[in-house]
Amino acid sequence: TPGLKVAFLRRLKPSAQLQPKDNRLAVLLPAAMAVAADPKEIKILLMEKISQKAAQVFKDQGFTVVQAVKYTEDELVEVIKDVVAIGVRSKTKLVPRVLNAAERLLCVGCFCIGTDQTDLKLAAEKAIPVFNAPYANTRSVAELVIAEMIMLARQAGDRSMEIHKGTWNKQSKGCYEVRGKTLGIVGYGHVGQQLSVLAEALGMNVIFNDLVPKLSMGNAVQVESLDDILTQSDFVSLHVPATPQTRGMIQKEHLEKMKKGSYFINLARGSCVNIEAAAELLKSGHLAGSAFDVYPSEPAGLTHDWKNCLQGCPNTILTPHIGGSTEEAQAAIGVEVANKLVNFINLGSTTGAVNLPQVGVTKRLQEGHTRVLSMHHNRPGAARDISNIIAAANVSSQYLETDPDYGYMMVDLESALSSEIKDKLDALPDSIRIRLLFTGEGYQGPPVEAATN
Fold first, then answer.
1. Catalytic residues
2. Computed over its alpha carbons, how large is the radius of gyration of the chain?
3. Which helix (H) or strand (E) holds 153?
4. Can you give the pTM of this predicted structure?
5. How are beta strands 64-68 and 205-209 bridged, if at all?
6. Which pLDDT tens digit goes with each residue over 385-444?
7. Does residue 222 contact residue 172 with C-beta atoms inside 8 Å?
8. Closest by Cα among 153, 246, 69, 118 to 145
9. What contacts 303, CB < 8 A, 6 or more positions away?
10. How far apart are CA 371 and CA 173, in angstroms?
11. Is 432 left (phi over 0), alpha (psi -120 to 50) or beta?
C-alpha cells in the first residue's frame, strides 16, 4: 500500500474532534478495542513458520510481528487477546473459543488455500474478514501430483524402501510409462487446471469433472459425472475444497468403480475420502497404487508415533500435507496474504475475503478526509441510516457490497468526523463494526515517503 501508514489513537472524549494535522493515515477502532499511539502496538501474530517475507511486509508498516510455531488452544486464547491480525496455516484452529477471546482482532490471514481451520461463520458475525491465497501454491501442488503419478507407475516408492533395507529387487512387471494414460481430475479449479497442462505435456490424455462448466486447458475434455472419471481413468486425482458436499464424497463403492490396476491420488482435503476403503482396495490389488498428502485426522506438529490405516499398503506414497510446502509457494503466499491484511488495516479493502462482501479500494485519503467503514447486517434501511448520520459532510466517493447476510459500506468524506458521530454509527441496530480511517495526528512510524509495498 504505497504511501500509507496506520496508527491507533488514544480514545477521544465524545466531544473531541479528529482534526487533521498532516497527511498521514490513522485509524480509530471500535471503543471495545484498546488503543495505542504507536503503530508498533498494532500486533500481528504469525503462526506455523509463515514465510519471513510476510513478516517483512508487516514490519515495513511499522507493526509489531510476533511469530510462533504452535500454541495449545488454552495458550492461544490468552495470546490472541491483544492481537490485531493473525496469520495461520492448516494446523492452528480458530475455533469459537479462540475467536471470542480475540478482543482486538480485525482480520485473519490463512496463509494457504484452505480456510477450514477457521470458523468462517463466526468470524463473519464478528465482522472479521478472512483472507487466503487461492492461487499462490497451485504450481507446487500440481508438480507433486505429476511426480507421484510417475513414482506410482514405476513402483519407485516400494523399490526405494526395499533398497534402503538392503534388498535389490529390479523388475519391470507392473511398471508403466504415464505417456498415453488417462488422467481424470475431480475438481477443475486452479490446481486442476495447472495439473491438466503439465499432464498433457507428458503425453497424457486428460478428462475432468466439475460442478460447473469450465473452459478446458489444451485438449482436456470435461465429462458429465464423477462416475465417468472413475470408470475411464488410469489415474484419478482429487482437487476439491472441504465443504459439506465434498465430505466423504469418495467411498468404497466409488473406488470399486475404478479400473482394476488404476491409481488414486488425494492432495485435496482429508475429509473427502474414506481411507479405510482405500486401504482395503490397495491390499486386495484392485488399486495398483495410491498417494495421499491429506488425512481425516492430522497431528498438530512433529510426532514420531502417528498411526494411519494406509501405512504398509503396497505402492502407497504418504506425505505429511506438504503439497504447497515449497520455498517458492510459501514466499508467494506470504506476500499475497500479508498485503491483503495490510490493505484491510490501512484502507479497509476486503478484496479476497472469503466470508464477507468484497469492496476493493486503492484510493488514498486526502488530507483532512475521513473514510467510514461499516460492516452491518444486510437489512432494509441499513445504508440509509448510515447516510443520515454522516449527511452533514460532503461525500467524495461511496461503495457498497452485500451478500445475503451482511453489507459492507465504505464512504469517503471531505471532512473529519467527531468520535460522537462514530458513537452514533456504533449504536445503529444493524451495525456490527464501524471503523474510521482519517488523516490526522497520532502517527508515530517511519516517514510516509519511505513506505513501500
1. 269, 298, 321
2. 26
3. helix 138-153
4. 0.76
5. unpaired
6. 999 998 878 898 899 999 999 999 999 988 877 778 888 999 999 999 999 887 554 333
7. no
8. 153
9. none
10. 69
11. alpha
